[in-house]
Design goal:
9% of the residues lie in helices and 30% in strands. It has three helices and 16 strands. β5 and β6 form a beta hairpin. The longest helix has 12 residues.
Length: 310
């Protein structure tokens, strides 16, 4: 009857001690002090990690040490989705060959990209050519483990921002909003081009002259151009919704408004629309009094009639 196999252990009590020599010793000493260095070969290449002989031809290196980094570039990588207890990190990470700035060879080390669940696939941010920097341990002893890992350089930030301000409408827009609060759409007629500007601005954007003559316009008009929006907006009906430039009957300039009351894919250029007002008790000096424009049961306006307002 075969006996059960017994475990075998190879152990060096107190650790395995060896001399490192002047080249590797300098590299480890610099690691302890938080720096990365390479050694220059007779051919001018910088080796990191340094070796005592040029791996290309076997010649002895020059003994000239060159500080490299502190950043580097990932040349290639291998994702570790399930780290073992022997790995340097307890969460998914990548082994990466990293060419430090100023070096001609690559250093193998762990690349930490953040917290991922065990078994997670490699993130999209992990790629050849990404820029990384070492994360140094606070306590260092002169080993490659003095670098805890490498981490990506910061290339983007998400800074919360909020700007609070008050907008003063001015006399022309105050008068326009006063009319809206009464259920009236007011414009100004230009004395030069005879066009009606709505919303009124107090001057003609075409001729640059002051305007004062008021004209009341109906709540009907024509869609000149429009856009279908797929991002939610608190002012709009359900997504997708349509924002359109509408040429009110009698106006010389278009105004921007929402269009609803029909599927977004049925809105078209030349479509006739009318203002849909909120209940009278909800009115105030605001364009929100008009929820949107909705279709009129009228024939579309020919394109040639609106082509100058696109």
């Amino acid at each position: 009857m075969p006996s059960e196999a017994e475990p075998h252990v190879l152990e060096f009590p107190g650790g395995y001690t060896r001399s490192v020599g002047p080249v590797i010793g300098r590299f480890l000493t610099e690691l302890r002090d938080g720096r990365l260095v390479g050694v220059r070969t007779a051919g001018g290449r910088v080796l990191v990690p340094p070796t005592e002989y040029d791996p290309d031809g076997g010649e002895a290196v020059t003994g000239e040490f060159v500080e490299v980094g502190p950043a580097g570039t990932v040349r290639t990588w291998s994702w570790v989705p399930r780290p073992s207890p022997a790995h340097p990190l307890d969460r998914p990470f990548a082994w990466a060959l990293i060419a430090m700035d100023g070096a001609d060879t690559a250093l193998l080390h762990a690349l930490d990209l953040g917290e991922f669940e065990t078994g997670a696939p490699p993130p999209k941010a992990l790629r050849t050519g990404m820029r990384v920097r070492p994360k140094w341990r606070a306590e260092r002893s002169g080993t490659i483990a003095d670098i805890e890992c490498f981490r990506p350089e910061v290339t983007m930030i998400n800074a919360p921002s909020r700007l609070a301000y008050e907008l003063r409408a001015g006399r022309a827009q105050d008068r326009f909003l006063e009319g809206i609060a009464q259920g009236r759409i007011l414009g100004h007629r230009c004395g030069v081009c005879d066009q009606v500007i709505v919303p009124m601005k107090g001057l003609c954007p075409r001729d640059g002259v002051p305007t004062t003559e008021e004209v009341e316009l109906p709540g009907t008009g024509t869609v000149t151009t429009f856009a279908v929006n797929n991002l939610p907006d608190p002012r709009a009906p359900e997504v997708p919704f349509v924002s359109a430039y509408i040429l009110l009957d009698g106006a010389g300039l278009t105004m921007l408004a929402l269009v609803a009351g029909l599927p977004a894919d049925r809105v078209r250029m030349g479509m006739r629309v009318q203002a849909a007002w909120r209940p009278r008790e909800e009115w105030g000096p605001t364009m929100a009094n008009i929820k949107w424009f909705e279709p009129l049961d009228e024939p579309d306006v020919p394109f040639d009639a609106i082509r100058d307002y696109l």
